[in-house]
Design a protein that fits this description.
Oligomer: heterodimer
Helix content of chain A: 25-40%
Shape of chain B: globular
Shape of chain A: globular
Order of helices and strands of chain A: HEHEHEHEHEHHEEHE
Number of helices of chain B: 11
Largest interface: A-B, 21 and 27 residues
Number of strands of chain B: 10
Strand order of the largest sheet of chain B: 1-4-6-5-7-8-9-10
Structural class of chain B: alpha/beta
Helix content of chain B: 25-40%
Structural class of chain A: alpha/beta
Radius of gyration of chain B: 20 Å
CATH class of the largest domain in chain B: Alpha Beta
Largest sheet of chain A: 8 strands, mixed
Number of helices of chain A: 8
CATH class of chain A: Alpha Beta
Distance between the termini of chain A: 32 Å
Largest sheet of chain B: 8 strands, mixed
Strand content of chain A: 15-25%
Distance between the termini of chain B: 32 Å
Chain lengths: ~200, ~375
């Protein structure tokens, strides 16, 4: 199981109304449905992904987080999940603020561009980083809005959001709770998962 | 008063014409009342003991109740044998499947070719103008008459898809799930425009006789054939037409005249000519009019979501085809956004195909797997085995 999935599973209350944004082939939704009995809804951009979800009986709408979140009513869900997709959004600020309009809590995970390997690649080699968390060369990466943990904090502060929990995800190891504003963790965490609430 | 006909196809389990007595007229949106009302239908499979496995299938503009049985006029297989049958997504071994001829149709349900009790002659243009809500009301009367309180699913394609949305708006407590394939929540200006071409062709045929052709012993076959030819183009994509026919000729060389030089011409003429054998011109006028009048949001102050608010417990599945320009993906998306806004549980996928609107009837594995997945999870929630 993906480490971020394990952490999201732990953070999701049983029976919650859940929206998984960018749900892919529905692995996480399926897991949450089986293990937590959630009332799940997915949003996924690719037709193949949605077809796979439908075939496993998940309720998923083909659509684009940048455009289609605004069709959901306010507080329609208990939890909205954005799992390693934020950095692919055209307008991450809008997406995060929409997640917290639609749901009471948002669970957002993303690769940390402040990780030491990333910094090292740029500093020492003068090349765009290609790491475990960011495996593609610059010309084919789907990631268009990368950020560090502290960059993300700047966004949550700007939006007036409260951080309920934060954990570092590093290379298959169990999620490790971290103080999100730690300078050290901004070097150490390969990826992070945040639980956000409206303040 | 039900006339049961013997089952003649493997999975057909019954059907006939349900005749509602004169004291149960169909109240129409126009204010008129239609009586007596007859609804012709076919069934496949058996209703289970707790009456929870009934599926109502709603056909397209020129479809009928011969969903998976041999058509009595054309002798061809039913129109959806790809989806309905043993081992298929709609399976008579698990579902009790009902398909009724639409109100205004010409295969046994009351329509303009039925006898007007006031005159003893066919209604013709004396038939009242009908709407999609009227069609759904007639279907609901049939479902009730068959002793079914809640349908496991309503499944519709094209016109049928629009009826599915109307079902959700008008009878949400009587449906468990709803599947709208290549439908829309309203008719666009382009949709209306194409229908107007078809109607103009029919009414320009001297044999139409102001709709009273039956009494004169003639039929406006030329006009109806042209209507079908124009409509048929809208059912195909440009890519599919090009792939099928290109600029291929019927024989070597051009005729230097107005014969069917091109294969695509021959194909369209064949579509037109075979259509008139099985369809009534006035039915075509009435049903296309009902489609043109359709705008589900209108009754909800223009807010489509309002139509779906009472249907929050219904499980929705909306499917569109990427090359369908008649009822495009944009129209389905519009429906899905309204379902989201209403807080309904919805699934939606655009199926990638170059076959246009006609993909409904053609080999589309992605359609089958979407239907299977959706129906299986709905069945689980419904407690069907």
């Amino acid at each position: 199981m993906r480490e971020d999935f394990r952490e999201i599973l732990r953070l999701t209350p049983a029976g919650a109304r859940v929206l998984d944004v960018g749900c892919g082939e529905g692995d996480l939704l399926d897991l949450l449905t089986r293990e937590r009995g959630v009332d799940g809804q997915g949003l996924e951009i690719s037709a193949d992904g949605v077809s796979a979800c439908l075939a496993r009986g998940l309720a998923v709408v083909q659509g684009d987080a940048d455009h289609d979140l605004d069709s959901f009513p306010t507080r329609a869900f208990d939890v909205a999940i954005l799992s390693k997709t934020l950095q692919q959004m055209r307008d991450p600020r809008h997406v995060v603020s929409e997640l917290l309009r639609i749901a009471d809590r948002a669970v957002v995970s993303f690769p940390n561009f402040g990780h030491w390997r990333v910094r090292w690649a740029l500093l020492a080699r003068g090349r765009m980083p290609e790491t475990r968390a960011l495996p593609n060369p610059w010309w084919s990466t789907p990631n268009i809005h990368l950020c560090t943990l502290h960059d993300f904090l700047a966004l949550t502060d700007d939006l007036g959001l409260r951080i309920e929990a934060c954990a570092a995800l590093s290379g298959g190891r169990p999620a490790r709770p971290i103080p999100p504003r730690s300078v050290l963790e901004n070097w150490r965490a390969e990826a992070a998962v945040f639980v956000l609430r409206r303040d | 008063m039900k006339a049961l006909s013997p089952a003649h196809d493997g999975s057909e389990s019954g059907g006939g014409v349900w005749r509602f007595p004169a004291d149960r007229p169909l109240r129409l949106d126009s204010g008129a009342a239609l009586s007596p009302l007859e609804v012709a239908y076919r069934t496949y499979g058996r209703l289970n003991a707790d009456r929870s496995n009934a599926v109502l299938v709603l056909h397209a503009l020129t479809g009928d109740q011969y969903l998976a049985s041999t058509h009595p006029v054309t002798g061809k297989p039913g129109w959806w044998t790809r989806v309905v049958g043993r081992g298929l997504p709609l399976d008579p071994d698990h579902h009790f499947i009902i398909c009724a001829n639409v109100l205004g149709g010409c295969m046994g349900t009351t329509g303009p070719s039925s006898t007007d009790p006031a005159t003893g002659a066919p209604y013709g243009l004396a038939f009242p103008v009908i709407t999609i809500p009227d069609m759904v009301r007639a279907q609901a009367m049939l479902v009730e008459a068959l002793g079914i309180e809640t349908l496991f699913a309503v499944v519709g394609t094209s016109l049928g898809g629009m009826q599915v949305l109307q079902w959700a708006a008008d009878y949400p407590e009587r449906i468990f799930s709803a599947i709208c394939i290549a439908g829309a929540a309203r008719h666009s200006a382009q949709n209306i425009a194409f229908h107007e071409v078809g109607r103009a062709a029919i009414m320009a045929d001297p044999d139409w006789r102001g709709g009273a052709y039956e009494a004169a012993g003639v039929r406006p076959e030329k006009g109806l054939a042209v209507a079908r030819m124009a409509a048929h183009i809208t059912y195909l994509s440009e890519a599919a037409l090009q792939r099928k026919f290109g600029r291929e000729l019927q024989s070597d060389g051009l005729s230097w005249g107005f014969d069917t030089d091109f294969q695509v011409e021959s194909y369209l003429r064949h579509q037109g000519a075979s259509f008139v054998d099985r369809f009534d011109a006035n039915s075509y006028l009435y049903i296309t009019r009902a489609l043109d009048y359709f705008d589900l949001a209108a009754a909800y102050g223009g807010q489509l979501a309002g139509a779906f608010v009472p249907a929050r417990n219904v499980r929705f599945c909306v499917l569109s085809f990427s090359s369908d320009w008649l009822y495009s993906t944009a129209e389905s998306r519009h429906v899905v956004r309204a379902l989201n806004a209403a807080g309904c549980r919805a699934s939606f996928v655009e199926i990638e195909t170059d076959k246009g609107h006609d993909a409904i009837f053609l080999e589309e594995p992605a359609l089958d797997s979407a239907l299977r997945g959706f129906l299986a999870s709905a069945a689980e929630k419904r407690g069907l085995s």
